[in-house]
User: Fold this.
Amino acid sequence: MRPTSSAETFPANTPAASQVFTAVLSHGPLARLEVSRRVGLSPAAVTKAVRPLIEAGYLVEGADEEARPALGRPANLVRVDGGRALFIGVKVTGDEIIGVLTDLCCRVRVARHLPLPDRDPRTVLSGIAELVEQLLAETDGPAAPVLGLGIAVSGDVDRGEGTVRYSPFLEWRDVPLAELAAMTTGLPVTLDNDVRALTVAEQWFGAGAGLSDFAVVTVGAGIGCGLVVHGRVVAGAHGVAGEIGHVTVDPAGPLCHCGNRGCVEAIAGEAAIVRQVREATGVLLTHPGEALALAREGVAGAREVYARAGEAIGRGIATVANLLGPERVIISGEGLAAYDLFAEQIRDAFVTAAFGSAAQCDVRTRPLPFEEWARGAAATAIQSFITPDTSR
Assistant:
């Protein structure tokens, strides 16, 4: 692997500076008075925070010619210079690795996919190194430095320790992936659960920007949930906050791989849907796309499986709304390919199970390609660079 850029420290050495930069990153360009209003700091404190960031080239300030007031000079706006630094994000699935190269504003410049012949940690680590090498090759010449690598993996991931404690889809236990990847690539590495990584990207750059409390529910191979409470992505004391996939919605339901019965994931996860459609129709199928095709063709029993899955997902979302009262729940994931088959059931089950005003929660869908999961990993790397304390 060719040498990477030398380590660089972000000049925001105070919480106020990080707060100001994050506000401009998510909502900019902004006038300084608007920054002051958004972060709750005095104009003098904002000026103090902005100065070193402008000097280091992370922020730039200039007149907004398009918003010239009727009288006087155009307003000066502060914005992030996205080209000042680059980051790499990697999403590991069961059969491939997806990587993206982004700028500081998490805009994807290049995306690459690499098939995985097997799920052995050594194979995955080698694949990550190869993918990073390909993406680093895109930065030859006068490009900005690559200042971090984010890796997103499903399952129980300890971001602070940089360890995959348990990933059922990869069949991993206690893999120190962050340390191994840092040694292999030479880059600072942030490792996080894939749904939490996607939630970071939605909080800063997507449908959750500007919201203090929201949730991201992902539907696909598993049923995941990322939570933002009072402006912070939360993992909980044990790192598994938001596991609505293992909320029991039918005590007499099918056995889940976690050992319990009737979990949302045991009813609405893709493997569960394939199994149930196979049992209902007698058709030997192995892929979610085949189950989806049968349901769309109107094969007896197939559509009922999706309807039941929608009801389970709706009840799971209602549990989140009842417990946390988020302003918005964003539904995403590859399972949205079947959304037309269970959208009504999700909505009806949610309204039925949500308590009181929790039913007013804005539930919306946001289809995202797998590259967006890798972009989420890049967002965690940007987050770690801006605010090294990742215990949030």
